[in-house]
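Notes from hallway chat w/ T.B., transcribed later so I don't forget. T.B. wanted the structure written out for a chain they're using in a teaching module, and asked if we could keep both sequence and structure tokens in one place. Agreed to drop them here.
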Amino acid sequence: MESRRVVIRGPGVQGVGYRFFLTRGAMSNGVEWFRANNLPSSSGGLQAVEACVEGGERAVEAFVEFARNNWPETAEVEKVDVEEFDGALPFIDTYLQLFNVEQSKKFIGEAKKIKGTINSVEESINSIEENTKGVKETIEDQGEKTRETVRREGEKTRQVFEDHVTRDVEDLRREVRDLRELVEKESR
């Protein structure tokens, strides 16, 4: 039996599905015992993921080769270190079950956050709807007031116009009368 510890370091090796990616690589290469963990960031700010494997020599070497040359699409890897490992590991199936439980807990936590966000958005929408109703009522009230003001001012303008026209017509009649009188005087 062979065992190895593979440590992958880089600015983006956590939160990109690396542990599951390594688990699939180990399974596809026939590794029997396996564990993968996110490690604390180094002093240089690099993230790290470790995978410890144990199994037949070919399976372990194939996995090491896989880990050195493959990574998740969104991962940012700077280096891959391989060293001997001496420790206990769970069967890969057991690790995978534990990993799934861990990921499910994360999912539930994220789902709760999303639910809180949805509730907050719904409250905002309700508030906007209430404010919109108030604005609509205000606009309708202002519209009615504006229509009334336009009607009143229109009537005032019509009355002023009628008064001016009446006065102008009376002035024209007077002028016409004066002109007739002048014409009659001149014709005599």
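Follow-up for T.B.: DSSP finds three helices and four strands in the chain. Might be a good example for the class.
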